[in-house]
Q: What sequence folds into this?
């Protein structure tokens, strides 16, 4: 059962009516009274629409993103960025963002260009005698094909003045498809593109044949094939600066040269250009859609990238775009033909003569073509960490790398370059390398782990303390550093340099209504307000995409870090043995106790954050860990007040999803000693008033996340060679899809899964395979213990002593161990689970579900494996 966490799973919405709740007084099934009990757990689960919430609901957090159409992908990328992005003045954009051009040199270049009779006439570009909007039936491809003429002539003048060769060129081939090393977005087409003169691609243009072995850029996926190779060509020799690992046959050089002029490699793209002949909201929206989609693809396609640029033109109104992992940003618009021609000259010279670092390439990553003995080849990367070069062997994870702004986490299996290895042991050793962008002020993973290990057994005492706990429960980090670029840390602050980000920046709407309402232009902060430092807009400029300054978007300055782990391991979601899966969760529960003894909460458990290394399951991805005392004292985690949710889809605690306490105490004191003997404490809670205080993540929430992971192992797998009918598996698939999905709120159905025993009973008896009866009973016992502890905490939150949680960790660990002892060993993915198309379904299944329930017979006692001797 090659299971991945649902941070890889998309969204399906199936709405069902709620099943009956309350105790089954007529049931003859056994009751679980103790972790070492010899009986089962009573419960009942109906088919429910159980909603999930990610830390940010992301349309691109799924493997199915590769199956989307081009238009759908572009729309998803727009939604990822949000409704608006920062809009800044030209002066700031040119001074802080664009590649540097000396002011005195630029002034001379502008004078020379404007004095050229072949370039400028009547105070406008000679090749644009009329605005495209004034032409009769203008053709976009024809109108803007002359852009390359302007580029070439301006660059020629600048080359003389700057006394250096250009590094980029502009290609205007609007009908040609960009070739790419990733299938995702391989069919992107641009009106024009600025590319590096020295190619970095694994093969130039359409004559590249994809190697049989997958690229290490991303996990295998492809519904969009690359362009077919031209006649009489097979593959292409990697041009400089690509470094071949083995000699490639030189007969392919000629084919490369023939197609070099048509090269549209995503690896070479530095700036995407999109044109429209008319200036109106519809055309602007289309340009924005295309340039954002292109930037997303370029950054996702190539791990060598730190940022990229874009240019959009509608008629004569021009905007320049900047995309990085910290933010997406756009300049104010300007007239590139006449009024602000010097700005356009500045833009061309900046892009044409930019260094690799200025244009967005990472000098600490080198592309390499590895030629295998069987004539297969694969694109790898040499990555600099702690002064040594490591070569990628396989891509382990590229979670959210397709998002423009964000962490862009990539994880590779790597080894030292042969020339870097000092001995045979280093030559054969493999490691895991994580490349990630985190907040500039955030602590690194190693800093957090060091602090946890220092504080263990000092905040709360831990029984049976182990001296080697760090190696048993946490990853061994060999290096954790900020990436260095040109002698400085790779951060947004260092990129901007001495130029502070403007406090009065505006907002640009990424998607504008085609018929925007009439606005009062005299109001402060209206869409017609000109930001400080911006030029007065031309009357022909559509103002629809200008947003109020009051709604100016925020962004997070990020730092680029790399973490090298000693062990590669594999995610818990890839364990194909339910017995082993539950055994690892028992081990992880002990790791939770160590974090508790240090006063830390993790806040982001998922199957992909638990790695099995050398037989032990270890806790990783510690970036979101916080000290609970600081959260409680409101020193951090203020984002909870504003609805920001931390965690991974499907495994977040329901209280964090819903933003309010869910386990209000029932009348009468709760007693730990009797809770499992009296299961009637799960009562209806819909009419309870929400707790008055803000919910903050505590230790119990981490225990709940591990329970969701256990339930995931039960719901998304089936025994090998199971004799279940396909209809039964379809029902299980429906429940699994409903439970583990992405939503921005917690539904009442999701709450019932952990709160109401009738829901658990139906899950065990009618949904899960009968082979899972015993193990699921024990796993559900964890929820019983946990809910009772929640109730005690929320009844006595002011005086609750978290030091007493060691008993809860011991009991839950014991239940997982017992569940593992009676679990099946050979399991596989639930049929249809991975391939299921995740799309919203808005339909009510009330009466139909009820009829299905009446037709469903419970598992016969003869097929149940009693827990008696567990």
A:
């Amino acid at each position: 059962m090659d299971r991945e966490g649902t941070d890889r799973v998309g969204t399906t919405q199936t709405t069902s009516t709620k099943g009956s709740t309350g105790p089954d007084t007529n049931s003859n099934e056994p009751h679980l009274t103790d972790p070492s009990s010899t009986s089962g757990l009573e419960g009942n689960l109906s088919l429910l629409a159980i909603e999930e919430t990610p830390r940010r609901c992301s349309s691109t957090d799924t493997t199915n993103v590769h199956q989307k159409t081009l238009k759908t992908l572009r729309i998803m990328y727009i939604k990822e960025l949000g409704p608006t992005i920062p809009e800044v003045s030209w002066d700031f954009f040119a001074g802080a963002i664009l590649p540097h051009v000396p002011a005195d040199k630029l002034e001379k270049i502008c004078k020379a260009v404007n004095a050229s009779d072949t370039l400028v006439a009547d105070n406008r570009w000679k090749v644009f005698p009329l605005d495209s909007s004034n032409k009769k039936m203008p053709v976009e491809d024809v109108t803007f094909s002359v852009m390359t003429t302007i580029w070439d002539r301006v660059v020629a003048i600048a080359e003389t003045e700057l006394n250096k060769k250009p590094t980029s060129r502009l290609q205007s081939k609007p009908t040609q498809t960009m070739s790419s090393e990733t299938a995702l977005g391989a069919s992107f087409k641009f009106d024009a593109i600025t590319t590096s003169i020295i190619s970095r691609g694994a093969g130039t243009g359409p004559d590249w044949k994809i190697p049989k072995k997958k690229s290490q850029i991303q996990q295998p996926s492809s519904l969009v094939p690359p362009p077919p190779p031209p006649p009489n060509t097979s593959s292409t020799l990697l041009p400089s600066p690509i470094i071949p690992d083995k000699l490639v046959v030189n007969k392919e050089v000629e084919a490369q040269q023939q197609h070099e002029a048509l090269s549209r490699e995503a690896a070479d793209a530095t700036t995407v250009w999109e044109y429209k002949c008319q200036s109106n909201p519809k055309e602007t929206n289309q340009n924005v859609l295309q340039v954002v989609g292109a930037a997303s693809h370029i950054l996702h396609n190539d791990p060598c990238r730190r940022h990229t640029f874009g240019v959009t033109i509608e008629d004569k109104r021009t905007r320049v775009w900047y995309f990085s992992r910290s933010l997406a940003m756009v300049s104010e618009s300007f007239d590139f033909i006449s009024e602000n021609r010097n700005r356009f000259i500045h833009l061309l010279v900046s892009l044409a003569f930019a260094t690799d670092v200025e244009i967005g390439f990472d000098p600490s990553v080198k592309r390499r073509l590895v030629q295998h003995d069987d004539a297969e080849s694969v694109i790898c990367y040499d990555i600099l960490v702690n002064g040594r070069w490591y070569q990628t062997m396989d891509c382990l994870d590229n979670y959210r790398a397709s998002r423009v702004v964000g962490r862009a986490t990539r994880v590779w299996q790597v080894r030292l370059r042969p020339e870097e290895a000092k001995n045979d042991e280093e030559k054969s050793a493999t490691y895991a390398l994580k490349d990630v962008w985190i907040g500039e002020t955030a602590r690194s993973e190693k800093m957090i782990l060091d602090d946890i290990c220092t504080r263990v057994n000092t905040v709360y005492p831990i029984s049976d303390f182990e001296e080697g706990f760090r190696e048993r429960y946490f990853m061994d980090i060999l290096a954790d550093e900020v990436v260095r670029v040109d002698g400085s840390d790779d951060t947004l602050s260092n990129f901007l340099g001495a130029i502070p980000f403007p406090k009065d920046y505006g907002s640009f709407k990424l998607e504008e209504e085609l018929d925007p309402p009439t606005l009062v232009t005299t109001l402060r902060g209206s869409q017609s307000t000109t930001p400080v430092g911006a030029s007065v807009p031309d009357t022909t400029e559509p103002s629809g995409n200008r947003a109020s300054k009051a709604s100016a978007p925020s962004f997070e300055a990020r730092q680029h870090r790399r973490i090298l782990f000693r062990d590669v391991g594999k995610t818990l979601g890839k364990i194909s043995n339910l017995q082993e899966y539950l055994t690892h969760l028992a081990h992880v529960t002990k790791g939770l106790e160590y974090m508790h003894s240090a006063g830390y909460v993790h806040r982001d458990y998922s199957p992909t954050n638990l790695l099995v290394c050398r037989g032990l399951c270890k806790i990783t991805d510690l970036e979101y860990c916080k000290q609970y005392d600081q959260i409680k004292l409101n020193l951090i985690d203020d984002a909870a007040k504003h609805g920001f949710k931390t965690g991974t889809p499907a495994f977040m605690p329901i209280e964090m999803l819903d933003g309010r306490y869910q386990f209000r105490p029932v009348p009468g004191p709760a007693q730990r000693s009797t809770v499992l003997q009296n299961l009637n404490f799960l009562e209806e809670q819909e009419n309870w008033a929400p707790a008055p205080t803000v919910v903050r993540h505590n230790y119990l929430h981490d225990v709940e996340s591990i329970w969701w992971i256990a339930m995931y192992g039960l719901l998304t797998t089936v025994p090998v060679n199971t004799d279940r009918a396909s209809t039964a598996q379809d029902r299980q698939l429906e429940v699994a899809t409903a439970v583990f999905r992405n939503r921005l709120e917690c539904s009442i159905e999701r709450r019932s899964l952990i709160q109401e025993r009738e829901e658990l009973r139906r899950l065990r008896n009618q949904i899960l395979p009968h082979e899972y009866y015993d193990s699921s009973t024990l796993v559900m016992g964890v929820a019983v213990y946990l809910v009772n502890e929640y109730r005690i905490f929320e009844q006595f939150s002011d005086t609750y002593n978290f030091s007493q949680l060691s008993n809860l960790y011991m009991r839950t660990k014991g239940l997982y161990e017992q569940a593992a002892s009676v679990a099946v060993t050979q399991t596989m993915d639930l049929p249809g689970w991975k391939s299921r198309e995740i799309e919203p379904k808005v339909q009510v299944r009330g009466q139909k579900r009820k009829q299905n329930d009446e037709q469903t017979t419970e598992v016969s006692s003869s097929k149940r494996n009693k827990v008696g001797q567990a």
